[in-house]
Amino acid sequence: MDFDQEAEQQKNEELRRQLDAMCIGKGGFVRADHHQVGGSHYSKKAIQPWAVIESNGMGFFDGNALKYLMRYRDKGGVEDLKKAIHYIEKLIEMEQAK
User: Fold this and answer.
1) Which domain holds residue 17?
2) pTM of the predicted model, to two decimals?
């Protein structure tokens, strides 16, 4: 990671901390990025799958394939790899039909 990327990452982390403080300080909520419902297989990741999906404008099929690839070591093992392949196969079918 170069200096500019590191500085940008630090800036983003600080903005997230400020937003969290504002939300919690007003009796609000804990942002979805900071907790996981039903396990911890995503919260262990340096980057959440949905952050990659959202920032890259990914769709349902490629986003789900990515999600399963990112979690297979921590949750579903080979079954998650098969699920990723299944979504990729569907994505290929859709792309070929264009």
Assistant:
1) 1-35
2) 0.61
